[in-house]
Write the structure tokens for this entry.
Amino acid sequence: DAKTTQPPSMDCAEGRAANLPCNHSTISGNEYVYWYRQIHSQGPQYIIHGLKNNETNEMASLIITEDRKSSTLILPHATLRDTAVYYCIVRVGYRDDKIIFGKGTRLHILP
Amino acid sequence: DAGVIQSPRHEVTEMGQEVTLRCKPISGHNSLFWYRQTMMRGLELLIYFNNNVPIDDSGMPEDRFSAKMPNASFSTLKIQPSEPRDSAVYFCASSGTGVHEQYFGPGTRLTVT
């Protein structure tokens, strides 16, 4: 699976949009971009995934560049409960196999 | 659905003792994963099963660790003998064929003194 690069930490004001970047320059054509987050003391939680098109669900939006070498997770109206470590992962989709977690981005939502 | 269930939630034991962690995956899921998380090493995969068969155990630290999945609804991770460096949070996760996401349990916090 391709590697990803994320900033170690970010701050965002409560109520504002949080934009979390991820670089995955070696992504292959059949690899999806996944985002998970881990709130303190809890298990990781799936947020969203995409292949090449932008995706949106009730939690977030995922913007993938046309060359697919980078992506941005957007939390449209961040709340204090969004304070967590966010992991960007690239892997072949629909495979029942392992996820390799990197260090992620620690997002602090400021009141 | 109750989600992935892990027990116990907390375990404190003395060095040298046997520790058994338990996991019940989401019904219908056919893949099960054991992860370990520490401050130093982050979140790392130990082993995963597909249809109750171990597929990749390359993350298991050493022979003191063993995992079993006797049926589709139950798995155990055993450490014998335990050591202080095994102190960590152990997560179990499950997923199904054609399902993109893995669902994680609440974790077991293990402390070995």
